[in-house]
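Researcher: Sequence of GST N-terminal domain-containing protein follows. Predict its structure.
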Amino acid sequence: DDHQEEAPEQVKLFGMWASPYVLKVRWALSIKGVEYEYVEEDLRNKSHDLLEHNHVHKKVPVLLYRGIPVAESDVIVEFVDEAWSHRGGRILPDDPHERAMARFWVRFVHDKVSAQLWRTEDKRLHVA
Ligand SMILES: N[C@@H](CCC(=O)N[C@@H](CS)C(=O)NCC(=O)O)C(=O)O
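Model: Prediction complete. Tokens:
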């Protein structure tokens, strides 16, 4: 399966400008030089497409690749690294132990830092 010569319209990202999770995915796509269509979401009035493609969490980012949605920023970043493995820079290190350490710190930032910055209550987005 050749992911190298993907037409730009095959890749779509649902995001929101202020989201650090979305930014992380945009960095990953940029490291790989992947062209994509960006769709800005209003999180107080989510699009039908977003709700359909991420009906479990209903959050951005969601990457749509060949019509198949991938959600959760960590999962998307690793997917991008693997789907375009021979293109651009490597995102995660090759060594299994180094990969584990990289994932450890990603999780640490999510759990300890982001949780304090981003909160959603009553379907409203709060920025502390
Ligand atoms: N664990 C998710 C977190 C994504 C997330 O929290 N997205 C926020 C924007 S920063 C969102 O879509 N909030 C809308 C909501 O919770 O209704 C990831 O890593 O992708």
